[in-house]
């Protein structure tokens, strides 16, 4: 059994209560193949009589956790009420995109998403700009053009080298004074209970990214950590880190 197949089977075991399953995206790269089926997930939310974001929260984290995470990110950003350009990597169901757009009213909301069915679902988002996604880069976005570039519940699943590449790209596209925000599983997330839970469930889907190393990497690219916020994840938690890019000297 391949690593990708093993990971996909692990995700499906964890998500079986939702009535959803992991399927293939349009890429053959094993680092970016898994994603939730839009049709099955939306159908599950409809059967449960819940908004889609609340449905996913309830079964993969805690009720209301997306809203709390977005509020924490925006508080640390301190943008005021509007920015011009936002970019999100892996928006999926749009459960983070919707409250961010509602709060900041960007002129353009760029997305890099590899799942065709979720791209179709996201077309109703205002001022949406769909970028071609290769699962590794933000190649279609110019350097220092983005006010806020963010990603949620993505770097927790993809291989470390993929996360590193995206961090480099986020540092490239954000403008001086702009914000980079993402959540990862750091060593600070790994208490004994989480470790026991993930071992007992054979949760090989989760990827740990060193916190100090991440902060140092982005510091070398002119980004300063503004703050953090812990977010619940099935059986454990992730750490949302928010950075500001310093003006060029």
TrEMBL record:
Domain of life: Bacteria
SUPFAM superfamilies: S-adenosyl-L-methionine-dependent methyltransferases
InterPro entries reported for this sequence: SAM-dependent_MTases_sf
GO molecular-function terms, A-Z: methyltransferase activity
GO biological process entries: methylation
Gene3D superfamilies the UniProt entry points to: Vaccinia Virus protein VP39 (3.40.50.150)
Keywords noted in UniProt: Methyltransferase, Transferase
Protein name: Methyltransferase family protein
Organism: Kribbella orskensis
């Amino acid at each position: 059994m391949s690593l990708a197949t093993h990971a996909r089977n692990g995700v499906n075991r964890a998500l079986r209560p939702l009535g959803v399953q992991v399927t293939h995206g349009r890429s053959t790269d094993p680092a970016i193949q898994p994603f939730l089926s839009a049709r099955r997930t939306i159908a599950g939310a409809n059967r449960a009589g819940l908004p889609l974001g609340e449905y996913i929260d309830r079964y993969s984290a805690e009720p209301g956790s997306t809203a709390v995470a977005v509020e924490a990110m925006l508080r640390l950003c301190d943008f005021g009420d509007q920015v011009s350009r936002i970019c999100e990597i892996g928006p999926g169901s749009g459960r983070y995109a919707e409250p961010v757009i509602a709060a900041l009213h960007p002129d353009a909301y760029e997305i890099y998403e590899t799942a065709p069915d979720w791209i179709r679902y996201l077309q109703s988002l205002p001022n949406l700009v769909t970028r071609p996604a290769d699962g590794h880069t933000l190649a279609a976005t110019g350097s220092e053009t983005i006010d806020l570039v963010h990603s949620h519940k993505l770097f927790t699943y993809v291989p470390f080298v993929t996360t590193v590449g995206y961090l480099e790209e986020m540092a490239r596209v954000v403008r001086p004074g702009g914000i980079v925000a993402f959540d990862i599983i750091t060593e600070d997330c790994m208490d004994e209970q989480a470790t026991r839970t993930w071992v007992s469930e054979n949760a090989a889907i989760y990827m740990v990214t060193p916190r100090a190393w991440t902060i140092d990497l982005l510091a070398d690219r002119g980004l300063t950590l503004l703050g953090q916020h812990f977010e619940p994840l099935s059986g454990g938690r992730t750490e949302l880190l928010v950075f500001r890019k310093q003006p060029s000297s």
